[in-house]
Design a protein that fits this description.
Layout: H1 3-14, E1 16-35, E2 38-47, H2 56-70, H3 76-98, E3 105-114, E4 117-130, E5 133-139, E6 146-153
Antiparallel strand pairs: 1-4, 1-6, 2-3, 4-5
């Protein structure tokens, strides 16, 4: 056997691993802030635009009412009947022409994005003392007053 091979075999025979504990000095949670925005929506009801009132029905109704009134009576009664027929026809014609213009409501959906900031702990910075020295390590949990260690001893070359 060569001397190099003998020294490697003897070094691996001396290496030792064992479990031990250390005193925890400080634990600091590692907090992460993150945003989970969401959408808030509501429905509003708005009045639809009302159209301008038309005068065509009044004109046609007034003419038709005047013609009908003119057929009734004679002399000055005919003139009064023509005027009354024209007025009544204009009113009826206006109502027929503009009756379909009822105001209506329309549903409008309004949405907006709202920030939703949250915090979560994604680990713990653990400071501990072992064998007279201070170490810090990030762990996924809070170890409490003592932390378990895996100690590995290897000789120096």
């Amino acid at each position: 056997m060569s001397i190099a091979l003998l020294s490697v075999l003897s070094a691996s025979a001396i290496a030792a691993d064992f479990d031990d504990t250390a005193r925890v000095v400080r634990v600091s949670p590692q907090i992460e802030q993150f945003n989970q925005p969401h959408q808030e929506c509501h429905t509003e009801y708005v009045q639809s635009q009302r159209q301008e009132r038309g005068i065509g029905g009044s004109i046609i109704g007034g003419l038709a009412g005047g013609l009908l009134g003119n057929q009734v009576g004679g002399g000055s009664g005919r003139t009064a009947a023509t005027a009354a027929g024209a007025i009544a026809g204009a009113i009826v014609g206006d109502r027929v022409d503009n009756n379909n213009q009822q105001p209506s409501e329309q549903a409008v959906r309004q949405c907006r994005n709202v920030d939703n900031w949250q915090s979560r702990t994604n680990g713990y910075a653990v400071t501990y003392e072992y064998n007279g020295r201070t170490y810090t390590s990030v762990m996924p949990y809070d170890p409490g007053e003592r932390v378990r260690l895996r100690v590995s001893l290897n000789p120096r070359n």
